[in-house]
Amino acid sequence: MATSKITIGTRGSQLALWQANWVKDAITRTNPEYTVDLAIIKTKGDKILDVPLAKVGGKGLFVKEIEEALLDGRIDIAVHSMKDMPAEIPEGLCIGAVPEREEPRDVLITKSGLPFEKLVHGARIGTSSLRRSAQLLHHRSDIQIAALRGNLDTRLKKLETEHLDAIVLAAAGVRRLGLAHRITQVLDESLMLPAVGQGALCIEIREKDPRIGAVMETLNHLATRQVVMGERAFLNRLEGGCQVPIAGHGHLIDRKEFSLTGLVCDVDGSHLIKETRSGPADQSEAIGLELADALLARGAGDILERLNQNAQ
């Protein structure tokens, strides 16, 4: 490839293309000597739309084919939603940059305009995320969870066609596509703790690529990276993916202190373990590990083992 050209690998959904184009614009704005192209790569997760992620392999379904293209040199950069990234990254690849984070919380979109607490008894809520469904059921055991896959537009249409009362989506995607007016309720973290990395982008690169590494320095947002790496350390210690309801969200206090809340929950919401840990921002990964160990000491390991056995 010519040194003046950078190829970004991305999925082909409307949201993925928005994210890739955002990265493209950021690169050309700060590094005008480069021309940037997009390469659309279809992943296994894009092809299997009628089965919950937990039953077909979890998070890696959305990144594996793009990572293969990065490893063999067909692309220079991969742009992912950070929440889609598995806990472990293939040898030879690394997270090159983490831009500033968008709103990390989840949102509820309802037909009636009513918030979660006021939905009718037995309301049908669409989501295929075990993390979301477990937390919803923990707060209201009467609701019914309906499997919901597909891109954002598809999910919004299914709210009307699948006899659903509400759907739950990531706020970041809704906002990025200019659909914030559809939001009924931004779900407070006390009700719905976000997924690890939710709202953040992951720009993945080859480890030994100084040309691209230099470009990444202009895109990285240190505060966001510190927070996200702490969240990912928590996830990695728990060996978590889409097969188990794990949530984790951190934030910085006065840019110096890192606070991280994490939870593990049974899929039916009956047993939820939640803790918070905090400490110096530059030790976010150590704090993530400490939080994971605290949950494991309270019995999270038993939940995870049971759920993983059921998934096999």
General form = globular
How many strand elements? 13
> Stretches where pLDDT falls below 50 for ≥5 residues?
none
What is the CATH T-level topology of the largest domain?
D-Maltodextrin-Binding Protein, domain 2
Distance between the termini: 43 Å
> What would CATH call the class of the largest domain?
Alpha Beta
Strand content: 15-25%
How big is the Rg?
19 Å
Tell me the strand order in the biggest sheet: 2-1-3-10-4
| Known CATH architecture of the largest domain | 3-Layer(aba) Sandwich
Our count of helices gives: 10
H/E series, N to C? EHEHHHEEEEHEHEHEEHHEEEH
> Can you tell me the number of structural domains?
3
Structural class: alpha/beta
Corresponding CATH superfamily of the largest domain: Periplasmic binding protein-like II
Helix content: 25-40%
Mean pLDDT: 91
The main β sheet shows up as:
5 strands, mixed
Structural commentary:
This protein has 312 residues and is α/β, with parallel strands linked by helices. It has three domains: 1-104 and 200-220, Periplasmic binding protein-like II (D-Maltodextrin-Binding Protein, domain 2, 3-Layer(aba) Sandwich); 106-186, Periplasmic binding protein-like II (D-Maltodextrin-Binding Protein, domain 2); 222-312, Porphobilinogen deaminase, C-terminal domain (Double Stranded RNA Binding Domain). It has helices spanning 14-30, 44-47, 53-56, 64-71, 130-139, 152-161, 171-176, 210-216, 222-238, 284-311; strands at 5-10, 35-40, 77-81, 93-97, 106-110, 124-126, 144-146, 166-170, 185-186, 201-206, 246-253, 257-265, 272-280. The strands form three sheets. It has a five-stranded mixed β-sheet with strand order 2-1-3-10-4, sandwiched between helices. The chain has a five-stranded mixed β-sheet with strand order 7-6-8-5-9, with helices on both faces. A three-stranded antiparallel β-sheet has the order 11-12-13. Helix 9 (222-238) packs parallel to helix 10 (284-311). The chain is globular and about 60 Å long. The termini are far apart. The model has no long low-confidence stretch (mean pLDDT 91).
